[in-house]
Specification:
6-stranded antiparallel sheet, alpha+beta
Length: 827
C-alpha cells in the first residue's frame, strides 16, 4: 500500500507537470468513455434492467406461433380457452394492444373535454403485473363480466394532473364518452406499463363470444415451481383444445407458446442497440490507441529516468506497475469526466430517440436520473479501469525494458525512439485507421439507406395534409348511421373553410403499419389447399374524398362518391397489389368479395362488388413493399363493426389544405367542436410529420452511427498527424544531414508522405476486410443498399485515405522547413 501511495503521488506530479498532455489524453478518453456510458445507459434500460414488476422473470406473453414466426395478438375466445385450460400459470390477463381514447366530459359548462388514454384489461391484469393501488382497489370479479358495473382505476399522473390528487375522488363517477364510470382506485406512480394509459377499465369479455378479431395482448405469470418449457408444453395443449372446440377457426399451422416478456418486448430493437454498442466500443478503442501513442511519444523524454530506476535496482514488474498506475489514474480522470459527458449525452440521446423504443416511452422511465443506476456507474468505473490498462500496457512494456548502456551514455535521452517504439506506434495508427474505416462504412450504408427510404414514393402526396384523431367510443355513436351523420356534417363544415381542399375520415393513416386486416372469399374462386379463405389482407374504411386528400391515382373504374351509402349497393375498391396477387391475368372490376365471414357477428358483411382499382400506397411503412388493400365506404360499415371499431381504435381524419396545414389547425378543430362539442381532437400532426415519426428509428440509428464515425475519423486523423509530427521531431537530425548533403525539400516531403501513405493503405486494407464481414450485421437495418455495396466501400476508403494524407502532409511540410545548421548544432 505504501508503494501504491508512492506511485500515485508520483503519477499525480507527472500529470500536473505535463498539463497539455494530461488535458489532451483525458479529453480523448472522456469522449470515448462518455459515448459508451450514454449508449450503455440505454442498453441497460432497454435490454438488461429487469422489468419494474415483482419477480419479472416469471412474466411471459402468451402468443400464437406459426412456422415462420409468432404474433402477440389474440381474440376473446382464444383467451377464454387458454385461461380455462392452463395449470402452469398463476394468472393470465388480456388487454388492449394500444390505449383507447375515451372523452372525459368537462366539469360544469366552462371547460373543454379531454381525451384520456384508456386500456381495457381483464380481471387479473393487476395481479399479473404485481401492482397494488395506493388508494382504493382494483377490479372485482363481477365488474369484469359482461354487463358489469362500469369502474375505472386511474394512473397516478392523471389523478394528480387532472384531479389535483383529490382523495375524495374514490367512489365518484366520471363521464367518459357519454357513460359514467366510478373511480375505484389509483395506482402507484411507479407503475408504468406498455401501452401507457391514463386509466384502466374492465374488459368485460364474454366467454361465449365468437368474435375472432385478434385485437388483444395476452400476458401471464408463471407459477414459482414451473419452468418456461413446462409452461410452453401446457399452453400448446391448451391450443389444441381450442382447435378441438373450434376446428374451423384456428389456422392449421397455428399453435400456442410462451415468450419471456422482457425478451419479447425488445426483440425488434435489440440488433440496432447491440450494433450501436459495438460502434461506440470502436470509438473507445481508437481513443485508447491515441492515448497509447501519446504515452509512447512522452516515453522518449522518460527513457533516462526509467533507465536510472532500473540501474539502481527497480525490477521490471515494479516499473510496469508504476507506469500502469499513471495510465489508470489518467483513465480514472477520463472516466469521471466521461460520466458527466455520458449524462449529458444521454439527455441528447433521449431528445433524439424515437418515441417507440420499448421501456423508454414514459417520461418517468426516460429521465436521465432514472437511467443512470448502479449498473451504469459500475460499467463506467470498470470501463475506466479496463481502458487504463489497455492503453497503458504497450507503453509500459516498451518503456520498462530499457537498453541501459546506450540510454545512460546518451546525454539527450533520445536514443530510445528507435525501431521498436516506431513500429508499435505505427501499429496503433493502422488499428485506428481500420476501426475508423469500419465505422465510416457502416455510417455511409445507413445514410444511403435512410436517404433511399426518404426518397421512396409512398404512393400518395403527403404535402399540405393535416391529420387528427377523434375517439367515437361510447353509446352516442353506436351505429354507422350516427357516425355517418357526424362525418358528413364535419366534412361539409371543414371543406367550406377558406384554404381547405378536401377532408375525409379513415380507420387509420398510411405508412403507420397499423390497422385491421381481414380474410375474404372471392366469389367463383374456391380457396386453395383446403384453406378457409382466399386471402387475408389490409382492410380500410374511408370517406368519399379520401383519395382526393392523398391524391392517390385511380387506375381503373371509379372511386367512392356521396351516393355510396348504407342502403346502396355494397362496393369495394382494391389497390394494384391486390389486383396483381389475386387476378394476375384478369380484370377484377366487377368481381365480388365477401369480407370477414366467420369471424363473428360483428364482422358480418354483405358481398361487395369491386368498382375500382387505385394505385399502391405503402400502408405498412416506407421500408416495405406495398401490401394488398381493400377500401370500403365508411357509410357501408356494419353497425356491429362500427361499435367494435370505435371501442378499440380512434377515427383518423385527413384534411388537405392549399397552404401550411398547421396554420388552419385551430379553425379546423373549432369546426369539429361545432359539430359535437363533446368530441375533443387529439394527435394533431401534419402527414409529413407522421412519415418522419414512421422513420424515426432509422433516423436515430443513422444519426448515432454517423456521429460515432465522425468522431472516429477525427481521432484517426489526429493519430496519424501525431505520429508523423513525432517522427519529424525525432528525425530532425537525419533530415538536417539529408538536406546538408544536397537532398531537395521535395524529397523530404515525399519521404514522410510515403511513410504516412503506407500506414494509411495498410489500415484501409485491413479495415475493408473487417468491414466486409462486420457490415453484414447491418443487413436488417438497411434499405435499398446491400451491406457490401462496392460504391460505398470504395468511396469511404478514398475519403479516409485523403484525410490521412492531409493529416500526413501538414507535419511533412514542416519537415521541409528544418534548418540543417540548427538541427546539426542541436544534435
Amino acid at each position: 500500500m505504501e508503494a501504491l501511495a508512492s506511485d500515485l503521488r508520483h503519477a499525480l506530479r507527472l500529470l500536473r507537470k505535463n498539463r497539455a498532455f494530461t488535458i489532451i489524453a483525458v479529453a480523448a478518453l472522456a469522449l470515448g468513455i462518455g459515448a459508451n456510458t450514454a449508449i450503455f445507459s440505454v442498453v441497460n434500460a432497454v435490454l438488461l434492467r429487469p422489468l419494474p414488476y415483482p419477480n419479472p422473470d416469471r412474466l411471459v406473453f402468451v402468443k400464437r406461433k406459426y412456422p415462420d414466426g409468432s404474433s402477440n395478438s389474440t381474440s376473446v375466445p382464444k383467451f377464454s380457452i387458454w385461461n380455462q385450460y392452463n395449470k402452469s400459470l398463476d394468472a393470465m390477463t388480456a388487454y388492449d394492444f394500444v390505449s383507447v381514447g375515451l372523452n372525459l366530459a368537462s366539469p360544469g359548462s366552462g371547460g373543454a373535454p379531454e381525451q384520456l388514454k384508456a386500456v381495457h384489461a381483464s380481471l387479473d391484469f393487476f395481479r399479473v403485473f404485481g401492482v397494488s393501488p395506493v388508494m382504493g382497489r382494483t377490479f372485482l370479479a363481477e365488474e369484469d363480466r359482461p354487463g358489469g358495473t362500469r369502474v375505472a382505476v386511474l394512473n397516478y399522473g392523471v389523478f394528480q394532473r387532472r384531479f389535483g390528487a383529490d382523495p375524495t375522488l374514490i367512489g365518484k363517477a366520471l363521464v367518459l364518452s357519454g357513460q359514467p364510470y366510478t373511480v375505484v382506485g389509483v395506482l402507484s406512480p411507479d407503475f408504468q406499463p406498455e401501452p401507457a394509459a391514463d386509466l384502466w377499465i374492465p374488459l368485460q369479455a364474454d366467454p361465449a363470444s365468437t368474435n375472432q378479431a385478434h385485437y388483444l395482448r395476452c400476458a401471464a405469470r408463471l407459477r414459482p415451481a414451473i419452468s418456461l418449457d413446462a409452461g410452453r408444453a401446457e399452453m400448446k395443449l391448451a391450443g389444441e383444445e381450442y382447435r378441438r372446440l373450434y376446428p374451423k377457426v384456428m389456422d392449421k399451422t397455428e399453435s400456442v407458446t410462451l415468450a419471456p416478456m422482457q425478451q419479447d418486448m425488445v426483440g425488434d430493437v435489440r440488433p440496432a442497440l447491440l450494433i450501436l454498442t459495438g460502434a461506440v466500443g470502436f470509438v473507445l478503442l481508437i481513443a485508447c490507441a491515441n492515448v497509447a501513442n501519446l504515452l509512447l511519444a512522452r516515453a522518449a523524454g522518460r527513457q533516462k529516468e526509467i533507465a536510472i530506476r532500473s540501474a539502481i535496482g527497480a525490477g521490471r514488474f515494479r516499473l510496469v506497475r508504476q507506469l500502469l498506475t499513471e495510465s489508470v489514474l489518467l483513465a480514472s480522470l477520463g472516466g469521471a469526466l466521461g460520466l458527466l459527458l455520458g449524462a449529458w449525452g444521454l439527455r441528447v440521446l433521449l431528445a433524439f430517440s424515437p418515441g417507440d423504443l420499448p421501456r423508454l416511452g414514459s417520461p418517468h422511465a426516460a429521465s436521465t436520473f432514472a437511467l443512470l443506476d448502479w449498473r451504469v456507474l459500475a460499467f463506467t468505473g470498470g470501463l475506466a479501469l479496463f481502458t487504463g490498462i489497455l492503453f497503458g500496457l504497450f507503453p509500459a512494456l516498451q518503456l520498462s525494458k530499457p537498453d541501459l548502456n546506450s540510454t545512460l551514455k546518451d546525454a539527450g535521452g533520445r536514443s530510445a525512439s528507435g525501431f521498436r517504439q516506431s513500429r508499435t506506434r505505427g501499429l496503433l495508427v493502422v488499428t485506428e485507421m481500420a476501426l475508423a474505416l469500419v465505422l465510416l462504412i457502416g455510417a455511409a450504408l445507413l445514410i444511403r439507406s435512410f436517404v433511399g427510404l426518404r426518397n421512396v414514393k409512398p404512393g400518395f402526396n403527403p404535402h399540405n395534409v393535416l391529420t387528427v384523431q377523434i375517439s367515437m367510443a361510447g353509446s352516442r355513436y353506436n351505429t354507422t348511421a350516427q357516425v355517418d351523420t357526424f362525418d358528413r356534417r364535419a366534412v361539409e363544415r371543414i371543406e367550406a373553410l377558406p384554404g381547405v381542399l378536401a377532408a375525409a375520415p379513415s380507420v387509420c393513416l398510411p405508412v403507420q403499419n397499423f390497422g385491421i386486416d381481414l380474410p375474404f372469399l372471392i366469389e367463383g374462386k374456391p380457396p386453395k389447399g383446403g384453406d378457409r379463405y382466399n386471402g387475408d389482407e389490409f382492410w380500410r374504411f374511408i370517406g368519399p374524398h379520401y383519395f382526393d386528400v392523398y391524391r392517390i391515382p385511380l387506375v381503373r373504374g371509379r372511386v367512392f362518391n356521396q351516393r355510396d351509402l348504407g342502403n346502396s349497393a355494397p362496393v369495394v375498391i382494391i389497390n394494384e397489389s391486390f389486383a396483381r396477387k389475386y387476378w394476375p391475368k384478369e380484370d377484377p372490376i366487377g368481381a365480388r368479395l365477401t369480407i370477414g365471414k366467420g369471424l363473428g357477428p360483428e364482422f358480418e358483411d354483405p358481398t361487395r362488388q369491386i368498382v375500382g382499382i387505385v394505385g399502391d400506397v405503402r400502408e405498412n411503412g416506407l421500408g416495405r413493399p406495398p401490401r394488398p388493400v381493400m377500401y370500403i365506404p365508411a357509410a357501408q360499415v356494419s353497425d356491429g363493426l362500427t361499435r367494435f371499431g370505435n371501442s378499440v381504435i380512434p377515427t383518423a381524419w385527413s384534411i388537405r389544405t392549399a397552404a401550411d396545414p398547421l396554420s388552419l389547425s385551430a379553425v379546423i378543430q373549432r369546426e369539429f367542436f361545432a359539430v359535437d362539442a363533446q368530441l375533443p381532437v387529439s394527435s394533431v400532426l401534419t402527414m409529413e410529420r407522421v412519415i418522419v415519426k414512421a422513420t424515426a428509428r432509422e433516423n436515430f440509428n443513422m444519426l448515432l452511427l454517423t456521429i460515432f464515425a465522425a468522431i472516429a475519423l477525427l481521432l484517426a486523423a489526429i493519430g496519424i498527424y501525431g505520429l508523423m509530427a513525432y517522427a519529424v521531431e525525432q528525425r530532425s537530425h537525419e533530415i538536417g544531414i539529408r538536406l546538408a548533403l544536397g537532398a531537395g525539400r521535395s524529397h523530404v516531403l515525399r519521404l514522410f508522405i510515403a511513410q504516412g501513405a503506407r500506414l494509411a493503405a495498410l489500415g484501409v486494407v485491413i479495415g475493408l476486410a473487417a468491414a466486409f464481414g462486420l457490415t453484414r450485421l447491418l443487413g436488417r437495418l438497411l434499405f435499398g443498399v446491400t451491406s457490401t455495396d462496392p460504391a460505398t466501400f470504395a468511396g469511404v476508403a478514398a475519403i479516409l485515405t485523403v484525410v490521412a494524407l492531409v493529416a500526413t502532409y501538414v507535419p511533412a511540410r514542416r519537415a521541409t522547413k528544418v534548418d540543417p545548421i540548427i538541427a546539426l548544432r542541436y544534435e
